[in-house]
Known about the structure:
- By secondary structure, the protein is of the alpha+beta class.
- The chain has one domain (about 1-115): Glutaredoxin, CATH 3.40.30.
- It is about 45% helix and about 10% strand.
- The protein has six helices and four strands, in the order βαβααααββα.
- It has helices spanning about 10-20, 40-45, 60-65, 70-75, 75-85, 110-115; strands spanning about 1-5, 25-30, 95, 100-105.
- It has a four-stranded mixed β-sheet with strand order 2-1-3-4, with helices on both faces.
- β3 and β4 form a beta hairpin.
- The longest helix has 12 residues, at about 10-20.
Amino acid sequence: MKFYGYAGCGTCRKAKKWLEDRNVAFDEHPIRDTPPSKAELKRMLGHLDQQTKRLLNTSSKDYRELGGKAYFEGLSVDETIAVLRTNGNLIKRPFVLTDDDGTVGFKPEVWAEKFGP
């Protein structure tokens, strides 16, 4: 499991603790310093019903500075991925991928279904 998060993010800390409490092994990656690869972003889209808006960290200052929803509505999937690759702060976190599943954000009930009890 790959866990992309940000140490200053309370939701990421809760998600990480959830995994640790259940002894779920994961490799942690700082999303701001090393955003997910193009291939990982495309794989995640497959888990998010191809909805690029679900990849976006809409509460970030960077998102608002770009123009928010209006900016991203005009971009193709590949263009959106290119922007996300340049700024990991634009990606909703935590961003978690396994070999056969993935999700963004932290909802304990969803995580329990996907990653264990």
